[in-house]
Predict the 3D structure of the following.
Amino acid sequence: MSKVFDTDHYDSDDWAKYLVLGFLETKGYKVWVNPDRFGIDLLAERRGKKFQFEVEVKHNWHGIFFPFERIHYSARKLKFIDLDSETWFVTLNDEQDRAVFIGGDHLLLSPIIYKRTKYTENEPFVEVDIQWGIFRTLEEGR
């Protein structure tokens, strides 16, 4: 069973998309927040190509090095992958200064697992090997 949308929980980490937006702008992207609050977080264009980015914060990742061999994304986020745009899933560390970017193509190729969370009993997650991650310091280019 998937977690029910929680406005307070969503709002508590909503700021993260603005950090990623600023970072992407330094890399030459034209970026804007998706006006659809229930859609993917950020939409972008660069060199005539469309992109989209889903942003989240992993509060149990502290410091520069990602401490796990795999990263999990709620399987409900697979709906955000759009074949007309390049889709990226971006996870920030607790300090908000480091991010890992995972391409949507890697989510599509990764297995679904089921796990208990603090909100659900048997929620499906996509389990992606962290080797597919592209790590960036968010202050790069500023």
About this structure: The CA atoms of residues 19 and 25 lie 10 Å apart. The radius of gyration is 15 Å. The longest strand covers residues 49-57.
